[in-house]
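On clarity, I found the account of how folds are encoded harder to follow than it need be. Since the whole study asks how a given chain folds, the encoding of that fold should be made plain. For illustration, here is how one protein appears when written out as sequence plus structure tokens:

:::
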Amino acid sequence: MASRDEHLTNQTRVLAEEFFAEGSVHKRWEIGQLLRSSRYCEFFEAAERGGKKENALCKKIPFKELDSFQKKNVTSEIQVIKKITRADKLHRCQHIIEVYVNGDDLLMILERLTGEDLFDRLSKAEGGLSEDEVRSHAKIMLEALILLQQLGCAHRNIKPEVFKFSRPDELGELRMSDFSFGYQSDNPNKLIKQLCGTPPYLPPEICRNQFYKPVLADMWSFGASLYVLFSGTFPFGSGDKLDPLFNRIQNAQPSFSGSKWKSISEPAKDLICKLLKKEPEERLSAAEAVDSPFIRYATLRQRFRVSCFALAGESSGTDFLHVSTVCPNQSYCDEQVDAVSR
């Protein structure tokens, strides 16, 4: 009869597939200092022995101590992130490297994103982010959401804090991270009923405790995130009491008054309004949003700049093929549970 350790190992081997690693994590990885912790997991620095890979992140999950629902969430997280890692050719999301079992603990070795998150970037920007900066970030965020939707996945906790830069300098690329509430289904029309996410970004259907489509909930949360990136405030306020906040989310409309919004273009406001639709089915999909006038403006302008550079190169006899992508990495560029992220 298999021991509990063997049972967890066999379960994880089937779940993680090619990402499962036999043996001890310490054979390949040196686990460093604790970076942060939550109620259900701890994050440590990790470096591959021999320096073959850049520093990674070790997520330690005390699997034995989790209840059945929490174990289901961990299973879903691994299912989602392994699908993403296989398909993410543009590298718009954080990737998984390996999964280990160490006694009663499950260890996920993840790509470590060492740059700041979008909320930190917003907080440090004097006068806030420019419209061009928000547009460039939004395009990358949408490309990540498109990937998830193509894979039948949803994030379920979209907010600026889960979009992080891969490194702290100007070469850092923006990527979606933290798939702790990740969800996947082969049925895109499946409805679920589960309270998870961060209150100011929750859509009306979750606030009403209704069944909902996770993909459409993500699009509302993206719209709320876009509002925050432009204004530095939540579209329906915040506060310690959830009932007044949930009432505003269900009944109020986002306000575009105030000095900050005077300089924001109408296509930007229009996109936010089409994402913050009270009726889920009326919201834009990620593919529709990336084709909106607000996002397409950046693509058209980028192409125009490339054409101008190419013409200048032809007239001067200089080879300008190296600018054909024009700074692609520039930062401007079914059950009710208490699972609300704080």
The chain has two domains: 4-111, 118-292+335-340. The longest strand covers residues 29-37. The CA atoms of residues 92 and 203 lie 24 Å apart. Confidence is low (pLDDT under 50) at residues 303-342.
